[in-house]
Amino acid sequence: MVSGSEISEFRVHVPDGDLADLRARLDRTRWPDQLPNEEWRGGAPVARVRELAERWRTGFDWRELEARLGELPQFTTVVEGQTIHFLWVRSGVPGALPLLATHGWPGSFLEFADLAGPLSGHDEAFDLVVPSIPGFGFSPLSGPGWNGERVARAWTVLMARLGYERYGVHGGDLGAGISRRVARLAPRSVVGVHVNYLPTPPSGAAEEALSPQDDARLAGYAKWAAEFGAYEHLQRTRPQSLSYALTDSPTALLAWIIERFHDWTDPRRRDRIGDDVLLADIALYWLTGTAGSAAQFYRENALAGPVPGRGVVPTGVSCFPYEIVLPVRALAERSENIVWWREHAEGGHFPALEVPGTLGTDLRDFFRPLRS
Question: Source organism's superkingdom (predicted)?
Fold first, then answer.
């Protein structure tokens, strides 16, 4: 039974002054020259950032987004002094399986907003719980020490507080690591773990009997780190210095995030993530002032170390071809109890936005035998 004293209803509303300040800052942007390099290889091109900044300043309607979000039930609760914001969409379908879905960076709970209806309204329904990680969006950071392990502990408290004794977990990016930790902390409650991101980097030791495809996947880790990994290194080592730009300049924040979406999305599916979808995510970071604390999560996570031990909970993996790095099943099975694995022909790092129907099907297929 949910205690009313522990759970509070939440409704999104940003003061008019914050929206006016945002428009004024965008209007005063001091634009750099376009440096002489190939588009996107040296960062987000000026023409694209200008286009999106102008849309943000004159066309994007935050109030319309607030109205749409008002149709989704949202709540807050406090765990260990930290406010946790979350979506909680109950299906009303008998036998619905509670599903705890965790976002990553530079995503947010908004990734699951459009999936809430299909997941909760299907015959194989889920009660969907989507928390905002501490330091992201409407979960403003209360203090240091909120790494993946501590977040996972908070998630187990949240699910118990909502009255769920057994549930599934799902995540991508940072949310995948958090979901795996939840399963390790509460193996008797978690019926299954589904992820769409599961790094299996080379260990340095010789790996035998891998297929040419798997060898290519392992080789991709070094290539990715050399060409695209600067953001991760900076957020893991110097998030405070970065936070000044991301908190003071909406244009800097815009460029920092759209580069990730460009690099990590299936180029054949980029049209699925429209400009207003991008701007909604970026505006959430800006208007809540959490871009710096979200970057800090990388440092906290690095200090905490990798997900420990070998998981015992049944685990399913969806592999999308334009993911940041792709997993090798033989290596994944060393740390996870892999019982389900599916390779896809399209999609990237943001499947809930790029190929939502595919992700929804995968979730139903994986959890089907685990429901009872």
Answer: Bacteria
173 has catalytic annotation: yes
User: In CATH, which of 3.30.70.660, 3.90.580.10, 3.40.50.1820, 3.20.20.140 is domain 8-23+51-200+207-370?
Assistant: 3.40.50.1820
d(CA 349, CA 362): 15
List of residues 6+ apart from 187 with CB closer than 8 A:
312, 313
At 122, phi and psi to the nearest 5? -75, 160
**Interval 238-279: pLDDT, tens:** 999 999 999 999 999 999 999 999 999 999 988 899 999 999
Instruction: Work out whether strand 337-343 and strand 314-319 pair parallel, antiparallel, or are unpaired.
Output: parallel
Q: What is the pLDDT of residue 1?
A: 37
The one-character DSSP state at 270 is G
Question: In this predicted model, what pLDDT tens digit does every residue of 114-142 receive, in sequence order?
Answer: 999 999 999 999 999 999 999 999 999 99
Instruction: Exactly one of 173, 263, 266, 362 is catalytic; name it.
Output: 173
Residue 298 appears among annotated catalytic residues:
yes
Q: Of 285, 298, 344, 362, which is the active-site residue?
A: 298
Predicted confidence at residue 203, as pLDDT, reads 80
User: What is the distance between the alpha carbons of residues 3 and 163, in angstroms, rounded to a whole number?
Assistant: 9
Residue 138, CA distances (Å) to 188, 196, 244, 280 in order? 30, 24, 20, 14
Tokens of 43: 């960062």
Q: Are 79 and 158 in contact (CB under 8 A)?
A: yes
What residue segments make up the domains of the chain, in order of their start? 8-23+51-200+207-370
